[in-house]
Amino acid sequence: MFNWIGLLMPITYIGVLVGSLATFSSLYRKRKAAKAASLAPWFGPHVPRNVYLSLLHLEPAPGQKSPAVPDSVLRAALLRRATEDIHRVLAIRSAKGALGVLVQRGSVGDDLWQRFQRAEQEIEDELRDVVIEANAFSPGWGATIFQTANEIASNAIIRKRVDDIQAQAKSETEWWEKKRATIQSEFMKELNSEGSSEGPAPSPAPQKTPVAAPIATTTVQGGSDEDTVFVEGGGPAAAGAKGSAKKKKGKK
Amino acid sequence: MEDTFIQLPLQIDPTSKAISASTSYESKPLSAELAALNTLHRSLLNLDTPIPPPPLPVNPKRSAQIQKLRESGNASFRKGNYPEAIRMYTFGIEMAVGRPGWEPSALVRDEVSALYANRAQAHMAMQNWPQAMIDAESSVEMKRVGNTKGWWRKGRCLVEMGRLEEAMVWVGKALDVEEDAELKALAKEIEKAVKKNENV
Question: How far apart are CA A41 and CA A117, in angstroms?
Fold first, then answer.
């Protein structure tokens, strides 16, 4: 019986030890989890996904038959969601190698790597989810939806690039009109200083400035033969007398 | 994020089935997304099948039409009717770009590149250098390899506009991608012109 009192000390000791260790461990884990959760997500909000799920949960308006949203709209929304996923998968894949090297060298913090891995995990789940949803709409669509989404994504990129380039056309044309006007005036000054008695011989591009065209013809009629040749040679290209010989070659 | 999402206050128009956000929740990315969604939905409705078909095989109808537009453009070009040729090529480009998104993008690239290259040539024939340059650049952007004509045409346009520095850079880039006698000749010509300008 007296044994119990003697044992009380060590048992309390062990109890306190184990208890404090357990408390520390649980607190530490909780804090770590909170920290991980507070890390900023890799990507911004997934708008198409939110739209799709919101449409799925859209309540039918009072007095209307369900479902509120026709299947065709949902299919389109799912396709948009898959397209956005493709963008994300591409971003993840292209970032992975570089980020891996940076983390190995210690150039970037561990936080970034954790965020990245979480994003990778999320996108995997997301892809699986989309395939399941697609198969639910029509069996077998899950196999092709990402092919389709991939083409949609790259087609969008192509179109944007072409549009960007074509958008410059206006400013380029304006620039060229201005430059051509200055070249033409210089060209005419040169002609006048040479003292040609024919007067000004404007050399506009015929299809661009129809107003000036009649002047050119009258000049040609009134002027000498040499002048006629000159208008043809240097005129439309309007790059000055220096380049006229070269210009002719280029047009062929 | 796995099982959570943000519920958006969306509305559906009962007749047109167009989706819109309620006005209190308007934001730029959301309205852009909804516009894209509605466009996609309309193009999906034009299909015979409920889901978009896989990228291959391609519906041959549109390809044939584009081919035809290009050929009639080429015919007008040979006859010297450049504005008509440009019109035909422009139709062709619109048609190629207007392909539904799920059709193969490689095909779109090929078609658009060829049409822009041809349109550049027609613009060059009319000495409309800036537009020709833009078209040639578009063509090269769509197809970098195996597109000597596109590379050459933009170089030529730059020379014609007297932008020799840019032309030199451009042709240098072109020669990195392509080995071509005409491009080399153009490079030499530019060099000569630059020297001549320095002497003057």
Answer: 10
> Is A114 in contact with A36 (CB distance < 8 Å)?
yes
More confident residue, B69 or A70: B69
Query: Which residue, chain included where needed, has tokens 């822009």?
Result: B116
CA-to-CA dists, residue B14 to A66, A70, A80, B20, B130, angstroms: 12, 10, 21, 11, 48
Q: Which residue of B has its CA nearest to A56?
A: B7
Query: CA geometry: angle at A144 spanning A142 and A150, to 5°?
Result: 115
What are the start-end ranges of the H helices in B46-81?
Answer: 60-79
Kind plus residue range of the DSSP H or E element containing B19: strand B19-21
Q: Nearest CA of chain A to the CA of B168: how many Å?
A: 16
CB contact under 8 A, A77 and B141: no
Yes or no: say if B159 and B192 are a contact pair by the CB < 8 Å rule: no
Instruction: Report CA Rg, chain B.
Output: 23
Amino acid at A195: G
Nearest C-alpha of chain B: how many angstroms from A7? 52
User: Would the CB atoms of A76 and B41 count as touching at under 8 Å?
Assistant: yes
Here the ipTM equals: 0.75
- Judged by DSSP in three states, B11 sits in strand
Closest CA to B71 of B94, B84, B88, B83: B88
The half-sphere exposure of A35 on its side-chain side, counting CA atoms within 13 A, is: 10
Highest mean pLDDT pick, A2-16, B55-69, B97-111, B173-187 = A2-16
A67–chain B Cβ distance below 8 A for any pair: no
Cβ–Cβ under 8 Å, residues B186 and B156: yes
Q: What is the pLDDT of residues A189-220, one digit of tens each?
A: 888 877 654 444 444 444 444 444 444 443 33
Angle, helices B148-160/B164-177, rounded to nearest 10 degrees: 170
Number of Cβ pairs < 8 A linking chain A and chain B: 155
In order, the DSSP letters of A60-121 are PPTTSPSPSS-HHHHHHHHHHHHHHHHHHHHHHHHHHHHHHHHHHHT-S-HHHHHHHHHHHH
Please tell me the pTM assigned to this model.
0.65
Does the distance separating the beta carbons of A75 and B162 come in below 8 Å? no
- Yes or no, beta carbons of B108 and A158 under 8 Å apart: yes
Taking CB atoms and an 8 Å limit, are B156 and A250 in contact across chains? yes
Write out chain B residues lying below 8 Å of A43, CB-based. Answer: none
Minimal CA separation from B55 to chain A, in Å: 6
